[in-house]
Design brief:
about 160 residues, mainly alpha, 7 helices, elongated
C-alpha cells in the first residue's frame, strides 16, 4: 500500500478539485473522476481509503457543504431549498432532506432560519458588508467535512451513489 500513499498525495488533491468542479452535475459518480484521471474505479476507491470515506460519500458531503453555505447566504433567501439542492447535484428533495438532517442534526430549513437570525457585521468602510460567523452554538455540528456517520443508513441508500 506504499504505492497508494505516494499516489494519493499527488492524485487525491487533483481528483478532489475535479469533483468540486463537477459537484453540480447530478450524474457525477465515481466513474467520472476515475475516467478523467485515467485510473480504475477500484484504484480510485483505494485512494479514498486514506480519507476514511467512500468516493460517493465524499461527493455527497461536498454537495451538502455547498448547500449549507448557500442556505446561509441572504441572497439565496428567495430560492427554494429544493432548487438549491438541485443546483448542487441532488436530484431528490426528499433524499437531500434526509442526508442534510443526518449530517447536521437539523433540517435545511432550520439551518437557513438559524443563519438568517445570526448577527451580521456592520458594513466595512468600503461599503461591502461581511457576514459574521454562524451562531457559535451551531459551529460544533457544522464542521467543514461532517464526520462519517457509519451508524446512519438511509432507506434507498445505494451505498456509494453520490446523490
Amino acid at each position: 500500500m506504499g504505492d497508494t500513499s505516494s499516489a494519493a498525495r499527488v492524485l487525491l488533491p487533483r481528483i478532489q478539485v475535479f469533483i468540486d468542479r463537477h459537484l453540480a452535475d447530478p450524474d457525477l459518480t465515481p466513474e467520472a473522476p476515475a475516467r478523467a484521471h485515467h485510473i480504475s474505479v477500484r484504484y480510485l476507491h483505494r485512494l479514498f481509503e486514506t480519507e476514511d470515506v467512500t468516493v460517493g460519500r465524499w461527493i455527497q458531503r461536498r454537495r451538502l457543504q455547498e448547500c449549507r453555505r448557500e442556505l446561509a447566504r441572504r441572497e439565496a433567501a428567495g430560492r427554494t431549498i429544493a432548487a438549491l439542492a438541485r443546483q448542487w447535484g441532488f436530484t431528490s428533495a426528499a433524499h437531500f432532506s434526509r442526508v442534510f438532517r443526518a449530517a447536521y442534526g437539523m433540517s435545511s430549513a432550520e439551518w437557513r432560519d438559524s443563519t438568517a437570525r445570526a448577527p451580521r457585521t456592520p458594513p466595512s468602510p468600503s461599503g461591502v458588508s461581511r457576514v459574521s460567523d454562524p451562531v457559535p452554538a451551531l459551529r460544533p455540528r457544522c464542521s467543514p467535512l461532517p464526520p462519517a456517520r457509519s451508524d446512519v443508513h438511509l432507506a434507498g441508500d445505494a451505498g456509494d451513489t453520490a446523490a
